[in-house]
Give the backbone structure.
Amino acid sequence: MSKKIGVFVCHCGTNISATVDVEKVAEETKKNNPRVAYTTTYKYMCSDPGQKLLRDKIKEEGLTGVVVAACSPKMHEHTFRNAAVKTGLNPYHVEISNIREQCSWVHPDIPTGTDKSIDLVRMMTEKTRKDKSLTAIKVPVTKRALVIGGGIAGIQAALDIADGGQEVVMVEREASIGGHMAQLSETFPTLDCSQCIMTPKMVEAAQHDNITMYTWSEIESITGYLGNFDVKIRKKARSVDLDLCTGCSSCWQVCPCKKIKSEFDMGIGNRTAIYIPFPQAIPSKPVIDRENCILFKDARKKNIKPNDSKVCRKCIDACPIAPVKAIDYNQEDEIVDVKIGAIIVATGFRELEDGLYGEYGGGKYEDVITGLQFERLASASGPTEGKIKRPSDGKEPEIVVFIQCVGSRDPAKGCSYCSKTCCMYTAKHTMLYKHKVHDGHAFVFYIDIRCAGKSYEEFSQRAIEEEGATYLRGRVSRVYKKGEKLIVLGADTLTGSVVEIEADMVVLASAMKAQDDAEQFAQKLSIQYDKDKFFSEMHPKLKPVESSSAGIFLAGTCQGPKDIPETVAQAGAAASKVLALLSSDELEREPVVARVDRQLPPVFSTCIGCFYCQKVCPYSAIESEDIKARDGSVIKTVARVNEGLCQGCGLCAATCRSKSVELEGFNDEQIYAEINALEFN
Amino acid sequence: MAEETKFEPRIVAFLCNWCTYAGADLAGTGRNQYQANVRVIKLPCTGGIDPLFLIKAFERGADGILVSGCHPGDCHYNSGNYHARRRWNVFRPLLEFCGINPERIQFSWVSAAEGGKWVETINGVVDTVRALGPFEGYQKINAVGSDASGEAATSGDTG
């Protein structure tokens, strides 16, 4: 029985109808295609009345196939398939012809757009003719979530999921959770102490019954799919046994390597080789920096096991744990396997590298520091205990110049976006500075002041009007050293004059960048990333926390620059998505999977058993199956697809020599139907 | 040569669902205009594209074809784009052997974030094929079947 196909052309308000003659598309489609039983156009097909129209016409006209010519299938394929299901039509008989993103929005000429739309609709109509009914595949769900990253985004997401009653595995590559938020001194616009609001959350996460925490650990590999991920976690050798160690501090107090630049203090403070990153670290147990520890250096040089080196054993000697010491120099990396149902990626950002702005003396002059370094200077737990002292000589700076948009909004440096937080944190920095150095003077060079957020504008006005920071609209061209002073050369574009300031310290509002390894990490997870290497959300408006891979969600600055409230909100949203996913025992998966031909005797299957398909399958989803006679003797061995593992890429189908493998939803018949429908106008 | 100026190449693009199709959508969202000569066929992965699809498209009147997927390393299915590239390396000499100018089939990587690159790529393909002129190989072969005298079966130059 041939199919009765209905074609519904959407105006999308005027998004489509402005450049595509939708009536003509409907008319021509009806006229030239005998299988099209019904065509219509509608202002908004995705709206409730639009969907009702679709449902009504399927029933009234007895349609057995539907083409909706509208926006990208990535937008509403799901919507229209669901609408069809309500009428009893199998959803895989509904196809979308993309005449908005790939036609009306890119071809302004009406006849051109209309002709192309007619073609696109015809191609999809032909494909629909060959569509088969498919049944969604049910897969069981592992009720455990993985949170990658232990900053505020990861902690918030983990806590929300754990409070929702599900298990969470949290992986943090640093020695402590806390991320960048733990580094901040005070937060805008309330000036409450970051540590005071962050550390209780860190403790809560560490003590939560439902959260298993792996610090100093990284993701080795992720395989599997939505509901059933297999994750390997590499627990990097910490050289300290977390179960035995009590965090008593004896070891790091005696460590002789005291001049290692502290990563947590952004290089303006020092730490030892066996260390905890900061006093409130969680776990509050040390790690040995094997690169810098003299014992490990010696062992590497002599090519002996670290424990055999006798150069320095101060920390292990100081360790009061007996009889087995908590320090183990020979400890090795350990791989932990976990089964996971859903993943939240919260891997955060890094600050723009020093030295990219040579003209500002970044990385060259000690007293030119970044925003995060200033946070550490201003922090009560920082290397100066909150006193603003310039790094070179420890003098209190009388004049500080803050330069905004260093690395942001600067396509010349490969960073065209706005880092969003710098306007606010610079305003905050001027206040912190003024609160600590009462007669000091703060100058701020800015391009625009962008303070969109609750109480943000008021906060920045306060910095200018009440706290007396001098804001100058313009760029700085150069910073150079003259004696003990830093000369800042800039422009004030509002007065049209050149400004020269003799400063004691310069603070660069450095851009938020994607992590250095963001690209490789995205590839490990098979998720998409944008030109700046931030991970891409599924849809910029409607799916802001979903990644391009099902079951993997995004939270925080790994997706793009954002401040703490936004990060917390996004983490909560991602957590709620995960909770929804983990609330069911089974998930439905698109039945786009490969199938190997099976038929009645005497052929049984056209498969010749070459198993080339097995070689190309990225998921090891191809198994071999013996077709047996009644007496148990093997008639032939053929390939079989494990549909639980198959992800529907179609590699096997294209590789098969005997055309015995087909990809459901994109089988040869369907693709050839589309190609055959190419009648170029 | 008035006829030549009128020639509008007919391009079929086989795109993977995850990268280039999404990139083409992004070009739309950004309202980046490009030449309308292209008809897109979406598949899950470029690794699932049978070379016969491309031959069939030529038979149906295409003058040029674009196959585009994810960048190396970015494939949603881990390795599909590598298989596509290998297949293309084998297929290309075969095309040349058959007398089809391999420039008529182009291969590219366009990610979901590269709306601009999609526009450049597709305009590039259209311009290249426009310069090559129409693909007449199949018409000539078909003409042999329909015309008993066989006069239409001329030189091996199939463009």
Observations:
- Helices of chain B lie at 2-6, 20-29, 51-59, 80-98, 115-132, 137-146.
